[in-house]
Write a structure and sequence with these properties.
It is a single chain. By secondary structure, this protein is an alpha+beta fold. The chain folds into three domains: 284 residues, no CATH class; 87 residues; 161 residues, Beta Barrel (Porin), CATH 2.40.160.20. It is built from 13 helices and 23 strands. An eight-stranded antiparallel beta barrel has the order 13-14-15-16-18-19-20-23. Strands 1, 2, 3, 4, 5 and 6 form a six-stranded mixed sheet that branches. A six-stranded antiparallel barrel has the order 7-8-11-10-9-12. Helix 1 packs antiparallel against helix 9. The protein is globular.
């Protein structure tokens, strides 16, 4: 009955681990890999539903989660989207239970065969792969050695998740007549469920375990018990994420310089983004999906995580120091700073042997960090909003939104931005003075951030835009012109997500002025004398 003793030991390890989690601080100091079983929920008859069905099996799964996919990936929705009386999450949960998905997942963990026999091979393999260098070194100091690492696998079963994706409102941009753009956009609903694998379930599973010495009658009884076994699932959360996969058309100015993709390739990108972005946003709010580790080295900052944890350029991590609290008589994590991954990400998809490679990070906020500080994955939306004022011949109330591109293009601190400003100003045009001419300028460009210190960033940028001048006395409507703008902003952290901003930019107008009748043949500064050159900016930026 050595198998029985082994299983009982595993049961105890699960129980102990569950207690550790319940008694831990609000930020768990340990991290175990979760597994995901992925599904596409199809709504037959909806636009492009069959196209998603054809592309979905080609979705590339991240290395961060164990692949627990079953024999089927796609099912028809168990509810009508137009029926407002139905709770979609409950309808999907009921369908998954009816199909026995949770039992199939547990069967996969235990490699259950057609005759009802099970083994621990996959559990042991995943336990070894889950172990960190610290766990490996600790295990080597025990009598059990690597056998202790294999036991980690058992506690991974209770981190079994089911993710159901629903691609909704798919639109082809050409058909929607979006100017100079081709590709697709959609909204993806992601439903996350967790398999309730607890001690009671494992005890019931143990009663179904078939041993080599079991008689045919006993085997039959145990198989019957397994068929009657109920393994519930729990709805965790839902995400709704807008996604696009697009590029400028081949006949547009920008499109001529970009390698063109087919509509089919862009559609595959859309389906892939549905998976990638749903997971990214789930990782913002679900603790089990947030990687926890420690700083391995500073100057530069290096951490023993990488592709194995799904790390991408500019992924954000918060750093904490455990400080003793006399009031609670316990050590509590205190926030110390923010770091982000560079493009130097280690391929650590291997079993720990004490020499796991490290990935390089850079600090974007906080105080000086030290080796051993706790790190916790803290995904952000990568969006920033600046509100301020520009002082110069071109100036006025100013706003700018930056979007971080690192996790998409692999270049740290690279941003795309859109800006806009309004200004009222008097000008003498010819022999007439126009009071309160309304100027509106808006544009877009790219920027690159450089951390000068832990809390000071320099961000040069370059972009192109258009300015529009309006006045009630303009006989041929508003005037407009293109401009180039280059400059740099300096940011000082007030908090990790709020910055005091200052900057200098230069406006250069690069086309003739146009009115409602077309090109006027006039240079912008001939109409509005001295309207060009430097502008200083100050404001406050909020980061999300």
């Amino acid at each position: 009955m050595k198998h029985g003793h082994l299983l009982m030991a595993l049961i105890l390890s699960v129980s102990t681990y569950a207690q550790d989690v319940q008694e831990s601080n609000r930020i768990p100091s340990t991290y175990d890999r979760s597994s995901i079983t992925l599904f596409y929920m199809k709504f037959p008859g909806e636009n492009y539903a069959s196209d998603v069905e054809a592309k979905f099996p080609q979705v590339k799964l991240t290395d961060k989660y164990y692949d627990n996919n079953l024999d089927f990936l796609i099912f028809d929705s168990p509810f009508n989207r137009a029926d407002a009386s139905v709770d979609p999450a409950k309808a999907v949960e009921g369908f998954l239970m009816q199909k026995g998905v949770s039992k199939a997942i547990v069967s996969r963990w235990y490699n259950r065969k057609d005759d009802g026999s099970m083994d621990l091979d996959l559990i042991f393999d995943r336990g070894m792969f889950n172990a960190t260098d610290a766990a490996y070194i600790k295990a080597q100091a025990t009598k059990r050695g690597e056998s202790a690492l294999k036991d980690y696998g058992n506690r991974l079963i209770e981190r079994s998740y089911i993710m159901v994706l629903d691609y909704q409102s798919i639109v082809n941009l050409r058909e929607a007549k979006v100017k100079d753009t081709k590709g697709w956009k959609a909204t993806v609903n992601g439903y996350l469920f967790k398999v309730n694998y607890n001690q009671d379930v494992q005890n019931a599973l143990y009663d179904c375990w078939i041993y080599p010495e079991d008689s045919p009658q006993v085997r039959e009884e145990k198989n019957k018990k397994f068929q009657e076994l109920n393994i519930p699932i729990t709805f965790v959360t839902k995400t709704t994420v807008p996604i696009t996969a697009s590029q400028p058309t081949e006949d547009s100015q920008l499109g001529r310089f970009i390698k063109q993709k087919t509509e089919e390739q862009l559609f595959q990108e859309l389906v892939q983004k549905g998976y990638d972005e749903s997971l990214y946003y789930l990782e913002m709010k679900h603790e089990d999906f947030m990687v926890k580790t420690t700083i391995h080295q500073v100057n530069p900052i290096r951490v023993k995580i990488g592709l194995k944890e799904g790390l991408k350029c500019d992924h954000r991590y918060f750093a904490y120091e455990y400080v003793y609290n006399e009031k609670t008589n316990s050590a509590e994590p205190n926030f110390r700073g923010v770091i982000r991954a560079t493009s130097k990400i280690a391929d650590n998809r291997q079993i720990a042997k004490g020499e796991m490679p490290t990935s390089k990070f850079y600090q974007t906020a906080g105080r000086k960090l030290h080796e051993g500080y706790l790190l916790r994955q803290q995904n952000d939306k990568g969006a920033e909003l600046l509100l301020g004022y520009e002082a110069g011949e071109v100036g006025g109330v100013y706003g700018r939104a930056d979007v971080r591109l690192g996790r998409f293009v692999g270049i740290k601190a690279l941003f795309a931005y859109a800006e806009g400003g309004v200004q009222a100003k008097d000008y003498e045009i010819g022999f007439t003075t126009y009071e309160g001419i309304s100027f509106l300028h808006y544009g877009a460009g790219v920027a690159k951030g450089f951390m000068l210190t832990r809390n000071v960033e320099l961000r040069p940028y370059i972009g192109i835009g258009q300015e529009q001048a309006s006045h009630t006395d303009f006989t041929n409507g508003s005037l407009k012109v293109l401009y180039l703008k280059a400059g740099a902003n300096l940011a000082l952290n007030l908090k990790h997500n709020i910055q005091l901003m200052g900057g200098i930019g230069s406006y250069s107008f690069i086309s003739n002025a146009e009115d409602d009748n077309g090109d006027t043949g006039l240079i912008w500064t001939d109409i509005f004398p001295s309207r060009e050159g430097m502008a200083t900016m100050f404001g406050v930026k909020f980061m999300f």
